[in-house]
């Protein structure tokens, strides 16, 4: 996203929306999905650690 010259253009348009706008919105959606995946993996790891810690003390 720091290399503005790579996306500061109007073509190719997507359903009438210039490239600059739909490219930015695509990255918002992609980063949301990646954040959700990371959070789910983190939760899974925390549950596994909690289960291992609880199982070891019993």
TrEMBL record:
Transmembrane segments: 20-42
Protein name as annotated: DUF3311 domain-containing protein
InterPro entries: DUF3311
Keywords of this entry: Membrane, Transmembrane, Transmembrane helix
Keyword Transmembrane assigned: yes
Species in which this protein is naturally found: Streptomyces coeruleofuscus
């Amino acid at each position: 996203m720091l290399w503005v010259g790579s996306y500061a253009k109007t073509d190719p348009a997507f359903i009438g929306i210039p490239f600059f706008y739909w490219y930015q919105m695509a990255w918002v959606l992609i980063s949301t999905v990646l954040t959700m995946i990371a959070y789910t993996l983190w939760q899974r790891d925390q549950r596994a650690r909690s289960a291992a810690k609880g199982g070891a003390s019993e």
